[in-house]
Amino acid sequence: MRLSFSNGEHADVIVDNGVTGIGSAQGNAILLGTAGVAPWHARIVIDKRGMILEVLDPQARTHVNARPIQERALLRLGDVVNFDAVAAVLKPDHDAIIDTRVPAGQTEGMPGTEVSRVVLRGLSGAHFGKTISVGARLLIGSDRGGLGLDDPDSSAQNAVLVVSSEAIHLKNLEPSGRTEVNGVSVHDAVLHPGDQLVFGRNRFILEAPGYPVRGQGMPTPANEAPAITQTLDAIQMADPVAPAPEDDGSGIWWLILAAGVIGLGIAGLLWFGNY
Length: 275
Prior knowledge:
- It is a single chain.
- With 275 residues, the protein is mainly beta.
- It contains 1 helix and 22 strands.
- The protein has a 6-stranded antiparallel β-sheet, with no helix packed on it. It has a 6-stranded antiparallel β-sheet with strand order 13-12-22-21-18-19, with no helix packed on it. Strands 4-3-5-6-9 form a 5-stranded mixed β-sheet, with no helix packed on it.
- A hairpin with a 6-residue loop joins strand 12 (119-124) and strand 13 (131-133).
- The longest helix is centred in the last third of the chain and has 23 residues, at 250-272.
- The relative contact order is 0.11.
- The model is unreliable at 218-245 (pLDDT under 50).
């Protein structure tokens, strides 16, 4: 994961697994000498839980996608994190990870394809908290014929999502149109489950169970979709414990025989003790 500072307060930083401290004091992995940044402002922890932002100074002003964070927040690619006035975008390690090779002229989905499981979930803007079905094709813009955006800079037909059984494609319909995918500004892109899309002030997460995550090949059938996400590693389960061998009943006879011998010994002691 790469932390990219929009206004150049710091060079881009590749954040690996482990703990990365952010603040104005020496000793932080990311040193921000900007007014308003606390000495030990926050830290990013990447482990099997995913990417987590932990606020270290309760007085520090920290936001994720313009929402104030007091203690901790789960992060995803495309999020904008503010350390006071310093804004940083979470991006892939390299912009080229976003595949922009979309078939030319493709604006219609494949008819008859079962794609009802592909949805956009609103994270900010007018569609916050809502789930929008994509279907085979979803037009995005200010036009009411598709997904309407409340952004004054949005055109009537800004972009389109096209879904087939093999892939999900984003195509901007304006020649100069751009969309942020996981923080990377692109014209067209091949999309994957968990991608974060930003159209102006509108932010969405793509949910597409059964489609391949980044780095995978062909889609997996919906009923065989992997049970892990882009931010969670698979947990290695221990080998099952072999069942204990079944008792054939012979052990119980040894116990009965031993008990009989002990009983005879005690009886003998009592008998001879009376004489």
